[in-house]
Structure formats: structure tokens, C-alpha cells
């Protein structure tokens, strides 16, 4: 087998999507767009590269993403540029740059596209991966959280994911967080606990103590088990907000569990955070995650503007779907393979293909000048539903042979493409 030289190989954690695979992607993307439209969300397309401070400040200096996962480089104008590791900062930036708030108080936006994080590649974790995400910018009330979570649930259901668990938490607004952070810091600094923590968590005690709940390292598990959790520190307003969100989900019949230790990997979250998880992918169990980010618009220089959003990983979703379905979906099959035999047929084939394609029938041929047997093999390989056999005899008779591959039958059709209709080929199957 021919292989590419080492220096040209694709980068670790990136993928080529070959036609069988990309067809699944297109189907998924179409489904996502249909769900978004149903919920009144409009698509926004933002750049893949952004000024580095957008993430340093927005995603947050204490996050793993900013500390060790960003693809950052200096461009020829000596500017620091980063390949976006997530979509929300760009959407908020675009919202501000286009002065969207002047037009409407509420914006419902969605995106689909690649994200970049220099993580250690493993199953379900890549360096270029793809997310779809939705953002609702403007409303601060719990109804928006309910709408967003309902959208997340509907998008997964529409994609064919049935087996997910919704886990939620409220990490509170500034006052609740301040009180909780202080208590948590005191707890983590107590000598018995502090000694037991890993180096990362010792650092987190100062920078972002909440993140210790996310530490997977063994020494931290035991002391952190007894750490104070946010639920005891929520202000009455935060508590009410969360109660209305939960009540809304119950009315919608969307089951959930509350996990007071759930922390999401981004700094800007406030109040509601949530994650849809699967049991089918091992450690990388989060398919879709999000929450409120009431301070981000202001952080970028805008007026105080609450917002809520989520992002979902398309690779992981497709991996779950692939486990559930048989390979070779109907959409990928070729309608007609044209099997040309002889010089006369070879000259006619481009016209035959053009006529079929004009009828919106997918059509292909052999380009290697091979015999009948090899061409039939190729047709099978392409999953062709029909093979149109065009040889000297057929041309002389003015009738081509149309072989129905699934039924091992054949029929004849007139040779003049002017007599063809889409039905002529469809009916023949
Ligand atoms: P996050 O932006 O970190 O909240 O992630 C949202 C979703 O994106 C996750 O639930 C995953 O489904 C997906 N995701 C995040 N990081 C990766 C990655 N490195 N590779 C593949 N999918 C990812």
C-alpha cells in the first residue's frame, strides 16, 4: 500500500473524513440546523482565529484550556492569534461588534464548526474537533435556561441519541460564589487537607478553588469529598432561579439529576450549569455541556447582559450513533453505475451520466477502461442500486439493460436520454 512520507502525515488528533464518513456528518449537520430552526435560533458563522485575549480573559486564565491547550501563534504583524478552542467568546464578540442589542433585546444564535485544543489525543478527545452550540443573549430569567436545556435535549433526540443523562448544578451568581469560594479556600488551606492535595489543586486553592471538584487525581478525592459545596451558599435569588429551572424541566418531562459537585471547565459560568452524559463512551462521557454566563458580555466591554448557552461535541455524538446503527446507511448508496463496454459506449457515457445527474439521480462510471466483470465489482463496491449496461449490442438495439442489483433482475430502457424521466429509473427498482 502507498503511504505518505512521515513529514506529510496528518497531525496527531486531527482526522480526514472520507466520503462514507462525511455523508454521516452532513446528515447530522442538517438535523442540527433543522432543530435549531424549530426553536427559532439563527446560524452565526464566526472566524476560526481570534485575538488571544478573547480567550485569555473570556474562557479564563485559570482554565486548563487557556493554561495548556490553546493553539496560539504570533502572526506576521506580531499579533497574538489563537485558533478558537470554543465558540462562545467569538459569538459574544460578534454580538457586540454588530451592535445586535440595538436591534432586539433577545438573540438566539447557533453555530457549527471546528474547535482546537492541544489535549492528549485519545478516544473521544481530539485536537481538532467539532461542536455545535447555541447561545441566548439578553434574557436573564430562568425561562431562557429551560429553553436552552430543552433545545439541547431535542437536538440530541433528533440526532438519534436516546440514552443520555442530564446532570445539573447551580454554581450561583457573584455573591454566592464569593461566599462559597471563601469557605472552600479555608477548607482547602487547613493543614490536614492541604498536605493531601496534588500540586495542581494546591495552586487551584488560590486561583480557582472550585476546580478541585474536577480533579481526577487519587490523592485529592478523599479530602475533597468533605469540602463545602455551593448549594449551602446560594443566595435566595440564585436558589429561586434554580428552582424555576428545575420545575420547568419537570413540566417538560425532561429528567435530570442535581450534582452539587459538578464544575464545568470554563471560568465564565454563573448560576445554572448542565451536562448531558452518555454511558457509551467510557471516560469521555460528556456529549453536551453549557450554562449561564451572565458576566461575559460586560467583560468584553458591553453593557451588563445576561446570557446562557451550550456546546456539544459532534465526534462523540456520531460515535454513540455509530454504536447503535449498522454501517452503510441508505443515503450513501449510488443510484446508477454506468457500465460502458467498447469504444462507442465510452464516447456516449459522459452524456449518459450528465442526463442521469440532471434528473437528480446519482451516477458514476468506471474510469479505468476495464471489462464487464471488473466494472460490476466496482458497482457493488459503491453499493449501486442499479447498473446501466451500455455495449455495442445495446446501442444497436436502441435499448440499454438496467440491472436491479438488490433483486438480481433486469429490464430494458430506451437508449435516448431524451426519453428518460426520474420515474423511469425509480420505478425500475
Ligand atoms: P466544552 O466546550 O469543554 O464544554 O465541551 C463541550 C463538548 O464538546 C463536550 O461535551 C464534548 O462533547 C466536546 N468536546 C470538548 N473537548 C473535546 C475534544 N478535545 N475532542 C472531542 N470533543 C470534545
Would you give an account of this structure?
The protein has 16 helices and 16 strands. Helix 1 packs antiparallel against helix 5 (142-159). The chain folds into two domains: 10-173 and 235-323, Bira Bifunctional Protein, Domain 2 (BirA Bifunctional Protein, domain 2), CATH 3.30.930; 333-427, Anticodon-binding domain (Rossmann fold), CATH 3.40.50.800. The chain has helices spanning 19-38, 53-57, 64-69, 88-97, 142-159, 174-189, 191-196, 199-207, 218-225, 236-252, 296-299, 314-324, 343-358, 372-381, 392-397, 422-427; strands spanning 42-43, 49-51, 71-74, 80-83, 107-116, 128-137, 165-170, 257-258, 270-277, 286-292, 307-313, 336-340, 363-365, 386-390, 399-404, 409-414. The strands form three sheets. It has an eight-stranded mixed sheet with strand order 1-5-6-11-10-9-7-8, with helices on both faces. A five-stranded mixed sheet has the order 13-12-14-15-16, with helices on both faces. The mean pLDDT is 92. With 429 residues, it is an alpha+beta fold. Bound molecules: adenosine monophosphate. Adenosine monophosphate (AMP) binds at residues 86, 117, 119, 124-126, 129, 131, 264-265, 286-289, 311-313, 315-316.
Draw up the topology in text.
Elements: H1 19-38, E1 42-43, E2 49-51, H2 53-57, H3 64-69, E3 71-74, E4 80-83, H4 88-97, E5 107-116, E6 128-137, H5 142-159, E7 165-170, H6 174-189, H7 191-196, H8 199-207, H9 218-225, H10 236-252, E8 257-258, E9 270-277, E10 286-292, H11 296-299, E11 307-313, H12 314-324, E12 336-340, H13 343-358, E13 363-365, H14 372-381, E14 386-390, H15 392-397, E15 399-404, E16 409-414, H16 422-427
Parallel strand pairs: 1-5, 7-8, 12-13, 12-14
Antiparallel strand pairs: 2-4, 3-4, 5-6, 6-11, 7-9, 9-10, 10-11, 14-15, 15-16
